[in-house]
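hiii, so i know i said id send this last week but things got crazy w the move. better late than never?? heres the sequnce for the chain we talked about at the cafe, plus the structure i predicted for it. fair warning i was half asleep when i ran it
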Amino acid sequence: MTRQARKAERELVNAPKKKAPRSGASADTAASSHTLLEGRLGYHLESALLVRALTHRSYAYENGGLPTNERLEFLGDSVLGLVVTDTLYRTHPDLPEGQLAKLRAAVVNSRALAEVSRGLDLGAFIRLGRGEEGTGGRDKASILADTLEAVIGAVYLDQGLDKAAELVHRLFDPLIEKSAELGAGLDWKTSLQELTAMEGLGVPEYLVTEEGPDHEKTFTAAARVGGVSYGTGTGRSKKEAEQQAAESAWRAIRAAADARAAEQAAAGEVLSPGDVVPEGGSASTA
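okay and structure toks below
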């Protein structure tokens, strides 16, 4: 690390924290805001380590090349995966490897991590560059997910595996329990294909776009059937984005089909596959 970077990092730890646009950032200084976050996490962390966990690369690059949270994110991803995998292995002794992997994917994905992060109001504490700040980075799923993994990595380094596992259980056990009840969600793409066939809608296709540098790409997928978009999803891999899009589309089609069935039953009509409201409420094709 250069002398300039070391000086900037010391200033980062001691400098007053800018007021963030979200509700959790009402503290006047970095120290007090970190105390607020630590209260939500339930752990007191070494100050410089917590600062690093909250430092997005966009902020680091604008402030003299500070260390980013990417290494901590890498570590935290492994800790999170280990704890969730161990829990699923022990609580589902009869499930084969393939189903366990799908349950884990339902818990460890960008959208789930982002929702947990929002519950902590983590976005209010992230160190963002001006560009990311201006484009809504504090609520971007990929940034929230990466930062939460970095925080888990920081707890592991500072407190050890047992404390990191406690944090993971406290934050993710509700999702782990819910994953066992997903049913269709074990493979949303397969479930969507089965549902669209049953409804006479055709075979789903996925349009995927990507953005970001090679080492940190974000993928966005749209699930389309017959040229109509029924759901979108984002993820850190093409597979994850497609699964998220398939889930969104499955829920939209299932809800519309159930509503139509209820209306037809109330009217005494014969049930038949038919119009399903696509994402956005319009049946127009591309």
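btw Confidence is low (pLDDT under 50) at residues 4-28, 282-286. thought thatd interest u
miss u guys!!
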